[in-house]
Specification:
This protein is α/β, with parallel strands linked by helices and about 325 residues long. It folds into two domains: about 110 residues, NAD(P)-binding Rossmann-like Domain (Rossmann fold); about 180 residues, NAD(P)-binding Rossmann-like Domain (Rossmann fold, 3-Layer(aba) Sandwich). Helices cover about 30% and strands about 15% of the residues. It has an eight-stranded mixed β-sheet. It comes from Streptomyces endophyticus. Keywords: NAD, Oxidoreductase. Pfam families: 2-Hacid_dh, 2-Hacid_dh_C. This is D-2-hydroxyacid dehydrogenase.
């Protein structure tokens, strides 16, 4: 890329000085909160790419209202996250945590666990991550419903995509509830005491979306009261999760440090997505993974095959 552009790698404290002169910006450190305060009043990048799937940190007014094209790294994280979800469901069903505890205590205690085949799951998030989760869970014999923004019949990959307003009715039948949706005004604080109360008693909850979608004190109460039979969280309202946060000691809760998508090849994979889009950008071709800044995510075409090469909208 250096043969075609001047590449400048900058820390957060130089953002404000450099951004007015940039044509494009790669947000490699996608957890940064420095961008809103550094965005220039005039000029600035015409294209912003983030090395993440979620773009909620970039949905500040100045960028959202600008003419800059925003793209994300869709295509890198879907299958690893789906594997993480499947792994956590199996771990909860088979009580792996209890097995590890008894091994450390040198205690031989036989017990029965749950079969996942024939159970039912609801996955919130109709994008590529949610679809990968559905494919993987169905391969385990779990009957899985996908919930997106709007209802679609005859989807070539998942069949019926349920509308967001159908979620409450689906929760009551689900053994597993998986949150894989982006953070928007509609999903902020979605999983609260009322939502957990609508779930089947003893259901398990997995969140690979965003931490602010869950009211954590309500989740803690649902676990302590037995309304939830267990949960696995990979994302939290505050990260890193403080050592004194009561979630660390919540019953039947598996905590992981925002790592569900991170594999041994992920940095190379992220670089390849950006490099491909850079080639397209130089040639004036449609970019991949263009975010609809009003929606806050990349729209998914009706056909998954078309979504893979979706250009600007």
């Amino acid at each position: 890329m250096a043969a075609h552009a001047e590449l400048v790698c900058i820390p957060e404290d130089r953002l404000a000085a450099e951004l007015p002169h940039a044509d494009a910006l790669l947000v490699w450190e996608f957890g940064t909160d420095a961008l809103p305060g550094a965005w220039p009043e005039r000029g600035g990048p015409r294209w912003v790419h983030t090395a993440s799937a979620g773009v909620d940190r970039l949905m500040f007014p100045a960028l959202r209202d600008s003419e800059a094209i925003l793209t994300n790294s869709r295509g890198v994280f879907e299958q690893p996250i789906a594997e993480y979800v499947a792994g956590q469901i199996i771990a909860l069903a088979k009580d792996f945590a209890g097995t590890y505890d008894r091994q450390r205590e040198h205690v031989w205690r036989h017990r029965v666990t749950q079969r996942v085949w024939g159970t039912r799951a609801v996955v919130l998030g109709g994008g590529p991550i949610g679809r990968a989760v559905v494919r993987t869970l169905r391969a385990l014999g779990i009957e899985t419903d996908l919930v997106g923004r709007t209802r679609r019949e005859g989807d070539p990959e998942v069949g019926t995509v349920h509308a967001f307003d159908e979620l409450d009715g689906l929760l009551a039948r689900a053994d597993w509830v998986v949150c894989a949706a982006p953070l928007t005004e509609q999903t902020q604080d979605l999983f609260d005491a009322a939502t957990f109360a609508r779930m089947k008693r003893g259901a398990r909850f997995v969140n690979v979306g965003r931490g602010p979608m869950v009211v954590e004190k309500d989740l803690l109460a649902a676990l302590e009261e037995g309304q939830l039979g267990g949960a696995a969280l990979d994302v939290f309202r505050e990260e890193p999760l403080p050592a004194d946060n009561p979630l660390w000691d919540a019953p039947n809760l598996l905590v992981s440090p925002h790592m569900s998508a991170d594999t041994d090849t992920w940095l190379d994979d992220l670089a390849e997505v950006f490099a491909d889009n850079f080639t397209r950008w130089r040639a004036g071709r449609p970019l991949r993974n263009v975010v609809d800044k009003e929606l806050g995510y990349v729209p998914v075409a009706d056909a998954p095959q078309a979504a893979a090469e979706e250009g600007p909208r």
